[in-house]
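User: Hello! I'm new to structural biology and keep hearing that structure can be predicted from sequence alone. Could you demonstrate with Tyr recombinase domain-containing protein? Please show me the input and the output so I can see what each looks like.

Assistant: Of course. The first part below is the input, the amino acid sequence of Tyr recombinase domain-containing protein. The second part is the output, the predicted structure written as tokens.
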Amino acid sequence: MHDLRHFYASLLIKHRENVKTVQKRLGHAKPSITLDTYTHLWPDDEDTTRAAVEEVLGDVPPLCPPRRAYGT
């Protein structure tokens, strides 16, 4: 049962549900319980920013070739 509950929570989080919604769906008394248990599943700020940029730019090819390491 625990695995099914964790799977359900991970689906909600993957589909960008907020902490309050996940808390209510799982029946936690407080959002802090949800965060203590599932915080590792929410994207961090860097992941969120990267996803937003990719969504706006899509598959735009880079304008400059990647830099080479010094001495190669």
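User: So the tokens describe the shape?

Assistant: Right, they're a compact way of writing down the 3D structure. Reading them back into a model, for example: Residues 9 and 24 are 11 Å apart (CA to CA).
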